[in-house]
Amino acid sequence: MNAPTPPDPTPPANDMIADSSFKPTVSGTEHVVAAAAFHLVERVLLILVALMTIGGALTEIVGIYQTRSITLADILQMFLYTEVIGMVSVFYTGKGATFIYPIFIAMTALARLIVLQSKEMAPENIVFEASAILLLAVAAVVITRISRPGAVGEKVG
Q1: Cα dihedral 43, 45, 48, 53 sign
Q2: Which of 29, 109, 131, 150 would bridge 156 by S-S if both were Cys, CB 3.0 to 4.6 A apart?
Q3: How far, in Å, CA of 64 to CA of 77, rounded?
Q4: Segments forming the whole domain that contains residue 115
Q5: Contacts of 102 (CB under 8 A, 6+ apart)
Q6: How many domains does the chain have?
Q7: Is the residue at 5 inside a domain?
């Protein structure tokens, strides 16, 4: 009697999805073209973000001029625009920790939310949002300390 043969553990040659060891090969030219294309898309989107941010800031300035009144919410909104421009600048210059700016933007946005909605918000929600700001501040300090030369565990010199 012939025992049934176990199934072949190797996937068929044309079943690349089932083969977890499959790694697509990309030629050097393809790699260079893809990297250049992604770099170009990134730069175009960064320019678009900068232009939209400048447009938003100008709209805010016109609104302030028309109402002849500056509120704390307006000032915090201008900080948000400034931080977005700073983040785009960091991407172009390569100076600074790129992860810090989104954290600052989140902190400013939460502060603006607290300022604008604190009268209608439940007290525990204000505490939660203030705690989130504190957590983001701690994260910013940790990232700054780690990314700085001479950080914990690094040798300087």
Answers
A1: negative
A2: 150
A3: 11
A4: 28-147
A5: 87
A6: 1
A7: no
Strands (E), the chain: none
Could you give the CA distance from residue 68 to residue 56 in angstroms, rounded to a whole number? 18
Residue 72 tokens read as: 């704390």
Q: How far apart are CA 32 and CA 52, in angstroms?
A: 30
Q: Which residue has the tokens 């919410």?
A: 73
Query: If 0-12 CB within 10 Å is exposed, 13-18 middle and 19+ buried, where does residue 39 land?
Result: exposed
Output the CA angle 52-95-92, nearest 5 degrees. 40
Q: Is residue 21 part of a domain?
A: no
